[in-house]
Design a protein that fits this description.
Chain lengths: ~180, ~220
C-alpha cells in the first residue's frame, strides 16, 4: 500500500515509473504522428495473421490502438494513477514486442527497422535484433519495479486515497473504484 | 483482483476508443490506386540512354527536365494504343529492344524500371530509411519516405515531374513503404503516374545497374 511503502522503495518506484513512462510517451507520440508508417512497420514483422496480406484491417486497427494504449498507460504510470494496472500493460507490451522481434529478426532472420519509436531511434540504431530485445528487457525491469512496489508515496494513488488500506478491495495498492 | 482487472480493462478501453476516434479523424490507406494506363513509344530515345537530367541526382535536375520527355517520345492511353496489354507491365526483356513501354499496372518489374531509367523516362523515389538510402540507391533517386510525407512536404517533391512516371521502390519482398509513398503522392500531392518497382533495390543492385551512394542532398 502506498502509505506503508518505505522511502527507498517509493523513490525507486518513482524513478522507474517516470523513466518507463517518459520512454513510452515519446514512443507513442512519434507513432501517433503517422499511423500509416506504423502499419508498415507492423507488417514487416510478418506475424501470421497480422500482415497487410492476411488482415489489413487488423494491421490498421493495431496501428491506431497500440500507440494510444501506450500513451494512456504511460501517462497513468507517470502520474502514479492505477500504477500496477498501467505497469502491467506496459510491461506486457514490452514482452510482446520482444517476442515479436525475436521471432522475426532473430529466429526467422528478417531484416527490418523495428519502428519501436516511430521515426525516432532509441538506443538501437540498426535493424531490429538483440539490441532491441535487451533494451526492452531493461525497460521491462522498470515496469516490474513499479508493478512490485506500486505507486509509492509520490503518486496519484497515494495522494487521492492516502488511508484507504483496509478498503483496498483490489489488493493492488492502487486507488479503487468507489 | 476484480478491481485490478477492471482498471486494466478501462485503460485498454481508453486506448481503443482513442484509436478508433483517431482512425475516423485521420484515416490512411495502405494501397495506392492503380495509375492511368499508358504506352510510352520508344523512338530514337531508346538508344539515347542517360541523356535525361532526371537520372542524375542533385538540385540542378529540376523541373526543366520535363522537356526531355518530349523528344522522340509519345504518351497515349493504353486502351487506345495497345489492344492487348501485357498482364504485368514490362514483361519483355530489354534485350529485345522493345518499341514501347506499356505501363498498365501499379507494379512494374525490374526490366521495365531499367528501360525507364536508361531512357530517362521516369523519376525514381527511394522510400527506405535514410541509412539504407545512404548506403546505396538507384542513381539519381530522390529520397522520400512515408514519414517525410506524413510530417510535411519534402523539398524533393518540387523536383518530381507531374507528366512523367514516378517509380518508387523500397527493400523489395514484403516492404510496404513504397506503397505508402505512392498512396501519399497520389492523395496529398496529386501525382497520378506512380508505379512501384516490386523487386526493390536489392534486385537493382544485384543486376549491377547504376547505383549512387551518400546522404540525401535535401536532408535537413
Amino acid at each position: 500500500m502506498p502509505s506503508e511503502a518505505s522511502k527507498p522503495v517509493s523513490t525507486l518506484s518513482l524513478i522507474a515509473r517516470i523513466l518507463l513512462g517518459l520512454v513510452f510517451v515519446i514512443a507513442a507520440t512519434n507513432k501517433l504522428v503517422d499511423p500509416g508508417s506504423l502499419a508498415a512497420a507492423i507488417d514487416k514483422f510478418a506475424i501470421p495473421g497480422l500482415t497487410v496480406e492476411d488482415a489489413p484491417w487488423l494491421v490498421k486497427a493495431s496501428a491506431y490502438f497500440v500507440p494510444w494504449l501506450e500513451l494512456a498507460a504511460a501517462l497513468a504510470l507517470i502520474a502514479g494513477l492505477w500504477t500496477r494496472a498501467a505497469a502491467t500493460i506496459l510491461t506486457g507490451m514490452l514482452v510482446a514486442f520482444s517476442v515479436a522481434i525475436w521471432s522475426a529478426a532473430i529466429d526467422r532472420g528478417l531484416s527490418f527497422d523495428c519502428g519501436c519509436f516511430g521515426d525516432l531511434k532509441g538506443f538501437c540504431t540498426g535493424d531490429a535484433g538483440w539490441c532491441n530485445v535487451i533494451q526492452n528487457g531493461v525497460l521491462a525491469g522498470f515496469g516490474i519495479i513499479a508493478l512490485a512496489a506500486g505507486g509509492g508515496r509520490a503518486s496519484a494513488d497515494a495522494l487521492l486515497c492516502p488511508d484507504r488500506g483496509p478498503d483496498d478491495d483490489a489488493g493492488d495498492g492502487d486507488i479503487d473504484f468507489a | 483482483m476484480k478491481g485490478y482487472l477492471l482498471k486494466l480493462a478501462v485503460l485498454i478501453a481508453i486506448g481503443a476508443a482513442s484509436g478508433f476516434a483517431h482512425s475516423l479523424a485521420a484515416p490512411f490507406r495502405l494501397e495506392p490506386d492503380a495509375p492511368p494506363a499508358q504506352t510510352i513509344q520508344l523512338g530514337d530515345a531508346g538508344t539515347d540512354s542517360g541523356t535525361d537530367a532526371s537520372t542524375t541526382a542533385g538540385t540542378e535536375s529540376g523541373s526543366d527536365t520535363g522537356s526531355a520527355t518530349g523528344s522522340g517520345l509519345e504518351s497515349e492511353q493504353a486502351h487506345e494504343a495497345d489492344p492487348e496489354p501485357t498482364p504485368q507491365a514490362g514483361s519483355e526483356p530489354s534485350a529485345d529492344a522493345p518499341d514501347a513501354i506499356v505501363l498498365d499496372s501499379l507494379e512494374i518489374d525490374l526490366t521495365t524500371a531499367r528501360l525507364l531509367f536508361e531512357n530517362g523516362l521516369a523519376d525514381f523515389v527511394d522510400a527506405r530509411i535514410a541509412s539504407e538510402f545512404e548506403a546505396g540507391h538507384i542513381e539519381g533517386a530522390y529520397h522520400i519516405t512515408p514519414a517525410m510525407l506524413a510530417s510535411g512536404s519534402p523539398a524533393a517533391i518540387d523536383f518530381l515531374r507531374t507528366d512523367t512516371p514516378i517509380v518508387i521502390y523500397c527493400g523489395g519482398g514484403d516492404c510496404d513503404d513504397s506503397k505508402l509513398v505512392a498512396e501519399r503522392l497520389q492523395r496529398l500531392f496529386f501525382f497520378e503516374q506512380t508505379h512501384i518497382m516490386t523487386d526493390g533495390f536489392p534486385a537493382w543492385a544485384e543486376a549491377d545497374l547504376p547505383v549512387g551512394t551518400g546522404p540525401d542532398p535535401f536532408a535537413e
